């Protein structure tokens, strides 16, 4: 009963976030409903993140490495949400987007990703290394953004970058739950790693597809 009371809020908010993500994704891009549902989705991420803390303390409170990983994933999720949101808000002002908070998040992502990767390599933990790659690549891309002039459509690229990470974060747990129920005999650490990293890989592919699609549309519009 106690486990249910701790886990149930996280599951309910997770379902709400999943529904809001797809409601936003299916709305016409740039439309008022897309922006409205997107804001609601981002708002749902705050209680979702908060609900992870009691679960971790209740189920694995003595595992310091696990708590560090959760804090790191919170940083990743928060950075993804911020870049997806601010890229649109600051589309006319790349200097404002690249302000102090962007710089701080870039350094935090790159540094924490590098540190976590070293831990994962020393422990031989593939999942930890996979999670660490996110910080290294995303933080590195943010730092690289600071060293060059804004490219055409820079804001859309960063919006899609954030959305791709949010897709992975929103869907990974549900994919894992579905896999464990469909293939209970294979449930375990290997399946957990496979579903988590597989969702991240799918999100990366989705990001590339969306980027190509929107870039082609933008090129066609400029040509006309």
Task: Please write out the topology.
Elements: H1 2-26, H2 32-60, H3 64-89, H4 94-97, H5 100-123, H6 126-146, H7 154-182, H8 189-223
Helix pairs in contact: 1-2, 2-3, 3-5, 3-7, 5-6, 6-8, 7-8
Measure the end-to-end span: 63 Å
Sheet with the most strands?
none
Shape: globular
Write the H/E string, N to C.
HHHHHHHH
Q: Care to give the gist of this entry?
A:
This protein is an all-alpha fold and 224 residues long. The chain has eight helices and no strands. It has one domain (63-223).
Describe this structure in words.
The protein is an all-alpha fold. The protein has one domain. Helix content is 86%, strand content 0%. The protein contains eight helices and no strands. It has helices at residues 2-26, 32-60, 64-89, 94-97, 100-123, 126-146, 154-182, 189-223. The longest helix is centred in the C-terminal third of the chain and has 35 residues, at 189-223. The N and C termini lie far apart (63 Å).
